[in-house]
Design brief:
Layout: H1 52-58, H2 66-89
């Protein structure tokens, strides 16, 4: 019989593992915030001054209607406007507790 050669496995050369590099995200430039020009009249504040949740938490024995929040907000706005007039009349730019 013919002699058979033993099959020998050749070891595969180990290659260093190559990682794919993550694509870098390009930084997007955001426009810089613009400063307000001039110190004219400020726009009216939209929304309520008061906090509904804090108002409701302050009330102990009653429920609060939605109309109450609007009335309270108007009352606070009037109080602030009157305090501003009083401070301006006293040649001040700072509202103080005595202006209420």
């Amino acid at each position: 019989m013919a002699a058979r050669k033993k099959a020998t496995k050749k070891k595969a050369a180990k290659r260093p593992a190559t990682r794919k590099k993550a694509a870098k995200k390009k930084a997007t430039k955001r426009p810089a915030a613009r400063k307000a020009k001039g110190r004219g009249k400020k726009k009216a504040v939209a929304g309520m001054i008061i906090s509904k949740s804090r108002t409701k938490a302050a009330v102990e024995n009653c429920n609060v209607s939605s109309e109450f929040y609007e009335a309270l907000d108007n009352f606070v706005r009037d109080a602030i406007a009157n305090a501003e007039k009083r401070a301006a009349g006293n040649k001040r730019k700072t509202l103080r507790s005595q202006d209420l």
